[in-house]
Write a structure and sequence with these properties.
single chain; mainly alpha; 0% strand; globular
Amino acid sequence: MAVLAVAAFLLRDKMPFLAEGYDDVRDANNTGLILGFIAVFASIVAMAEVMRGLLHAGGYEIPLAKTLQLTLVGNSWSSTFPGGAAISTVYQYRTMRLWDVSVVVSSWFIIVSGALSTVWLIALGLVSIFFLNASFSLAPLVGSATIMTALAMLVFFATNHPYGTETVLRKLIMGFNRLTRREPTRGLTSLHSQIVQLDAVHLSFGRFAWIAVLSLLNWVLDIVSLWLCIWAVTDYLPGFEMQPNRTTVLGVTLAFVTSKIVGTAQVTPAGLGPVEAAMTASLVAVGMTASNAFGAVFVYRILSFALIAGIGWITYFVSVARGGMAMETTTPDKAPNDEAAPETA
């Protein structure tokens, strides 16, 4: 962010919209900035509640304060380093193991939460594209949404029918063993021990639906933060009708989704550079002026990236100073073979 700020300052005379955007940032509405930060922080809380709900379904009572800590720290790992999403996933997994959450439930949480998050992001993009009549390649998005929805439903089915799942997996493993000329029963004991742990997960459709809503809310609140940042910089709130030099709620949503898709490669920390360029260009494409779009994106990234990452790192170092994030947990439905479970899924 510092490098981008210096570059923008030095290029302000060469690219007039940068200087205009800088003036917009200086004159930003403080109320909009505060509300924007509250919205983006609330989106983190929603994701922490998704974690708490999924772990509760596995029989582990983890306080919201702890899942919020882990979500903030995981976000900081993810957004600070190139390829940080993988580092964040490993950190979250290891922390859940410190909480004595089983291998299966920890892995199950990562799969389900990731699947739900991806499905909702794609759905928001499709809705925006449909109502804006934008020219866009729908086939990859529809295909991805179908795959992720099928994965989420498959995991939901496996969770509620563990022994039926075991029967199918036993046949697959035995078939694979025959093809590779291994012992026919190799891996079956380990499979059974993992399925016994999965039997501890009790996720009703109602609870699954509530967790899905929270996952959607995570994205919606993030979009609301961008929407409020536009208000803070331009003094107008995007509505549902297009006006000269202004965008709409759907335009804001499409710009947000586009930037997230660009940022998935994450060749820089939090997609720094490509994300800002994609979001600014998208906002211009849906009606905003370049200076207003640049100012709004700059403010939004300060709130959603710099401040949130800073809070996460403060949380991390405070927790390390106190001996880490290990804790005593209540595990009323803990599976009997959990202690013998391997450390890797």
